[in-house]
Protein 1
Amino acid sequence: MSDIKIELNEEGIRQMLQSPQMKRVVQSRASEIAGRLGEGYSAKTKVVKDRYSAVVSAESFEAKLDNNKHNTILKALRS
């Protein structure tokens, strides 16, 4: 067997994680999840350290109760 060595281009990865295309991918996925959850849930995208991140959260009182009782957000991530 041969030894394979993979060397990552760290600057290239950093640029990819900070690119507008990655922001669109993250926003799209978060919006899709929030859309499945319905009223009272929202999706927000932000920059964390050196990459885009999304947060799906329960905003309304009813959504918070539903999420606390049924783990709605966690279940929506699996779909």
Protein 2
Amino acid sequence: MKSIINQYRNNIRKIISNMTGSENDDIEQEVYIRAWKNLKTYKENGKFKSWITTITANLCRDYMKSSYFKHSQNNVTEDDELVQIKDTSENIESKLIKKQRQKRVIEAIDELKPKFREVIIMYEMKNMSYEEISEILKCPVGTVRSRLFNARRELSIKLEDLI
């Protein structure tokens, strides 16, 4: 198991970081535990890297669906916004408007169907390629492009007044 961890650690960490937006040791540890527990069910007709990538992606999706993740993403108060504002050439009002716009965009992304949300986050925020997303989600590149198109279309409708 130690050789598996050493061989796939960087790939697992990259997937976790790309999907959740941060390094998460708990998810990484759970990947190794699940791989160890299910090693006897692994069929050697596929690539081991694909198998462990699927475990990682599924655990990340579960984490992103969890109430803990949603609560930590939405737990920004107006006081936090005011503390984060630095006094520069921009005035405070324009910074607050910018923050409110960002918050609306994030809320609109959160309202997307999960399959659209994960693609738009990976592509637009994590700067991942179609191929990388395709590998992580185990779907064709054409499906990634289609989901990205549909996610952008839905966002443009939801955020029409900001555009």
Protein 3
Amino acid sequence: MKSGRHAKILELVKKYNIETQEELSELLLEAGYPVTQATVSRDIRQLQLTKVPIGGKQKYVALSDNGQEISKKYTRVFQEGFLSMDMAQNILVIKTISGMAMAVAAALDNMDCTEIVGSIAGDDTIMCAVRSVEDTERLMERLRKVMEGKEQEDVSGR
């Protein structure tokens, strides 16, 4: 049942611009898969679905198993959601488009930013605790390069 539901979810996110878990739940019900919100939320995590901006809105997309393709998608999510960044000592504050902070934070996690000890994402703001002021400055420079498209091939910084 679960694998069939997962296959149907992947099919639905490719076919439709699904913005919310509720929309996904309704489409699954129409397809013969009655689900709870908790099940949909768990499925989204397990399938590694993420939201990307499209025409002023957002939609769920599935990330492929190809590591390089995933990195490119995360880079695109970061670039499209990012607005600005500023530092206060070893705290990096990143402003995003409204509703995109969690997606941008997921992209940051994928970039393997070892300078970041931990981060918290709200609606349009991410706060990152960074190891040192020097690491914060290096990280900001690296993120500027990502925004300029210079690190699209390897966002991990390796």
Protein 4
Amino acid sequence: MNNGTNLNLKMIAENCGLFSNTEAGVVIDNINKLSEKYSSKDLVDIYNYMLIHAKQPEVIMQLIRCVDEYRDPSSLEYLVDILLLRNTSSLDEETKEKYNNVRVMCARAIANQKNTDVVSSLLYCLNNKDEHYRVRLACADALGRIGDRYAVAPLVEVINDEDEKSVYLKESAVSALGLLGDSRAVDPLVSILETKQGIMDKFTFLKERAIEALTKMGFCDNERVFRALKNSLSDESIQVRVNAIEALMDSDHPRAFETIKKCLENDPDIEVKKNAMIALYNMSDRSILDEVINSPNYPDSLKVEAVSILEEYENDNVEDEE
């Protein structure tokens, strides 16, 4: 690398034990002590140099933490090299396996720089089905956090790919789409909610992420999204129903209140009823609590919850008056 300072980077790295068989913990301690001797600008140059030459996974992880603290643009190319394993062709497979944690941390540090120039590298790892799933998850998350809408179409392809075996990767892609907030993701996300799956299927968690993504994107007022959320109130999964209630509560759809009210009245699960009652209370006033307390149609445990909320409401009013 081009060293624009008068630092002898090789000597500094040698003194830290980078090129010897020194134990990783000792090398890391020496790296940490560098902040006592050098300026921020010099430290970035030193860390970048070490990122090129370090071989021990534990040492590389510490260097990634160091450059992530400064987030200098000059570090980005070295982080990408690590993510893509460009300097590890001589390593055996066992050692490369240890690099998975390194590369996951690297993807997070890359995302923190918010630089769209790295999107293609992240997409390369994401789309490589031979890649370790945790690295692919980290890249999907990084794409969402960077916020480049060029990543929308590839992320949609991941969740639509019937040959993609990793449901966890699909979940990460869905979450990333929620962060990106692009309208092109609405139809694929709604299609997930419209898919019929049993309660024990891992697909249930994908539905939960899809609802969360649609909520973040602010598309819950969309008529098709509203219908999908309404239908999700009949899903076998309790958590999917709870998530749908929260999404409807946050929407401005004119039929959201009455839809949640029917859920409060008819859902067989007490936890779902509680969430529906709280949502209705947040959307209106204490009248829904009074109705639950005074109506014979609601179970005692729900009445107890309503009384508890009402007491908290009254106590808050008293404190405000004081």
